[in-house]
């Protein structure tokens, strides 16, 4: 046989993540050869005739329901996450709200990992509508089983968490969920599909804050949900169009632009964070460093198994616990800016106090760092001069 016949063509090959990030769903032949896809900044789409309007169920009508620029991004994210389809939302919280509401009704029960971002929504709003939540320590897989009740409909996980970086064993949690007929949802904002593909481990619904690494430049807010076609059609179609967290086409266009460099950005974040974490780990003023890319992480083996890499996020615990000293450290930082959020090109520090009972006036502090794309030598020099106030 001619060997060429047995070699798969490019179209038949399963393309790698870098190629998908650069090219998937952006075929220039569809758009007059434009290498960058067009921005359809339109709220509505008109029809040639009333017949056209009536007979065309797949046509674009209104951007809250569908938009061609946003659809390019949805297709790309679905491919990257190994899901069947995706929906974009106006924020990560918009995607999370739609996802949780599609899986619950009054009287239902959720088991969620303690420390998840959705806690304020679950406790502050969904509880009022009769959805109760039990929080479990996600490092203990059997806790999900133990917390499950007859009315549990959803397991909500987030691995790794974004302050303490505890992991959940995603495949093991999913198999417990399946044994109870419970839906699984993961917030994959931290790892992005470049470092972790939860659907391949059995997760039903993946949500993202695109405001973090997907956008990558701290200049937009957006969210995404990836799942099966059947689930989107049957369970999520109302939530995704009626709850109002609508993606703006220009923001979709910006996220497409950001995602073209996701692979190179994440690899540099990882390299820089590894350098900073290793340096902090040997610093005399530092009690402990938590970074999923360091062998000292208590779940390093699991991180290696279910993630392809680690990001720019890490936390360190200073030995010093006096508030004024830790505040002085924060105020001395020059390159690291003091801010919430993460995932952009820039380095950030977020000192987080944790009150200790019976020890008034003192906290134990955790300092969450987002290590950006600057030179690691400069970032280490900045930490070095600021850490001097901590001894
Ligand atoms: C920021 C964040 C969210 C919320 O996303 P928004 O886009 O700000 O609404 C959800 N989950 C995680 C893990 C986040 O860090």
Describe the structure.
The longest helix is centred in the last third of the chain and has 20 residues, at 262-281. A seven-stranded mixed β-sheet has the order 1-7-6-5-4-2-3, sandwiched between helices. By secondary structure, it is an alpha/beta fold. The chain contains 15 helices and twelve strands. It is globular and about 75 Å long. The protein has helices at residues 3-6, 17-23, 50-55, 68-80, 92-103, 119-124, 142-147, 170-180, 192-195, 229-242, 249-259, 262-281, 300-306, 323-332, 376-387, and strands spanning 85-89, 109-113, 132-136, 152-157, 183-187, 205-209, 223-227, 286-290, 313-318, 337-338, 348-355, 363-370. The mean pLDDT is 94. The protein is 37% helix and 17% strand. The structure holds pyridoxal-5'-phosphate.
What is the gyration radius calculated from CA atoms?
A: 23 Å
**How do the strands of the widest beta sheet line up side by side?**
1-7-6-5-4-2-3
Low-confidence stretches: none
Structural class by SSE content: alpha/beta
- Identify every distinct bound molecule in the structure, by name, code or SMILES: pyridoxal-5'-phosphate
Secondary-structure element order, N to C: HHHHEHEHEHEHEHEEHHHEHEHEEEH
